[in-house]
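Moderator note: this is an archived Q&A kept for reference. The question asked for a predicted structure of one protein chain; the sequence and the answer are reproduced below.
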Amino acid sequence: MPKQLTISAINCNSLNMASSTSILQMRKIYGITKLRTDIIFLSDIRIRNKNLVSSSDDLEKVFCINPYRSYNFIFNSSKNKRGVGMLIGTNVDFTEIDRKFDLEENFLLIKAIIKGVTVILGSLYMARTVLMLNFTTI
């Protein structure tokens, strides 16, 4: 029997590398990757600072190379508010088929094949937001 997938979710309260000292930022990232689950749903990631400088390249590197587990970073975040993402373990048998997201950066949906099964993964930021989705379009 194949190993079950492990999943977790976390509100990050910003992952912008310029938003705090590098030591505090690395502690936050290591705290996330220390979960070691196959998939981690992220909300409130805010990967851009107030000047809209993105930390996405740095984050992709740190999530891929860290002491706990290697992850691919998928995200919907271009502002200094909200933002959602997913970390998919690099050893997970994962093939992305389609991706849907909103311009307010409140959701990210990924249609994928994981271990031969078609699934829809969703990361949501829900703060006073009503989300209506038509799953026939994904």
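Archived answer notes: The CA atoms of residues 11 and 24 lie 16 Å apart.
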